[in-house]
Description:
By secondary structure, this protein is α/β, with parallel strands linked by helices.
Amino acid sequence: MKSMASDAAISIPAPARAALMRCVGISKFFGGVRALHRVSLDLFPGEIVALVGDNGAGKSTLVKILSGICQPDEGDLWFGEERPQRLTARQARKFGVETVYQHLSLCDNLGAAANVMLGQEPVRWQLGPLRILDEPRARTEAMRRIGEVGVVLEDLNAPVRRLSGGQRQAVAIARAMVNAHRLVMFDEPTAALGVKQTHATLELIRRVAQQGIAVVLISHNLDDVFAVSMRIVALRHGQVCLNVPTEKTSRATVVAAMTGVALEGRE
Length: 267
Ligand SMILES: Nc1ncnc2c1ncn2[C@@H]1O[C@H](COP(=O)(O)OP(=O)(O)OP(=O)(O)O)[C@@H](O)[C@H]1O
Ligand SMILES: [Mg+2]
């Protein structure tokens, strides 16, 4: 991977706090399509960054790169002091990076507890490929995790297909939190939810950040963005065109950045 550190030095002011994660000059092409162009972004503990942009702006591609699902063509990723040469999904998890998607990857026929601990069940005994899971510990751990995200579920073993959209989102967040200690990314987490459930999910996102984890929230809903984020980063045609504290900007400025339409009287 070619380092773009010199570009970053020009475009990014020295951070006052240590970033949990840094993207420096990330570019990505899909054939002839330039999905990302020299994207640099610092993510800090406890900060909720809203990543906005029109359809096709490159938001999900950036999430995939940060979670090791997709490899950048250019640029570097830093996790604290570490800079992996080629980040894999497995490595990203080890660095404490998790993603919660709009289309939740829950197992509908399993209960909330089983979903939260899926693939991460504590092992009581292991000999080569043979292992006996510690089910009581898995259940206690799942209950603790679900309690931490602040939802009350009557039956942790009832299939999650019976839960509401907001409750399912909470289970997905609880599952992400088993591993996440650095960064949680939410890709359109409220797109399919009603008003009340959206409100509850935003509250969960705040709680995640309060644990000192960096949060990236992708949303097309500017009400959500302004309600919950501390910083807004707008992408347009794969480039960062706005990176400002939420309190220092307005909806008009954000929309102008996303669409490329110049404002007449800038606030
Ligand atoms: N696997 C792929 N193969 C080819 N092109 C891709 C692939 N993934 C993304 N792209 C292209 O890269 C660009 C950025 O796509 P991306 O999904 O990151 O946008 P987005 O900002 O998440 O959009 P949306 O708001 O619609 O979800 C688009 O032009 C898209 O068509
Ligand atoms: Mg997307």
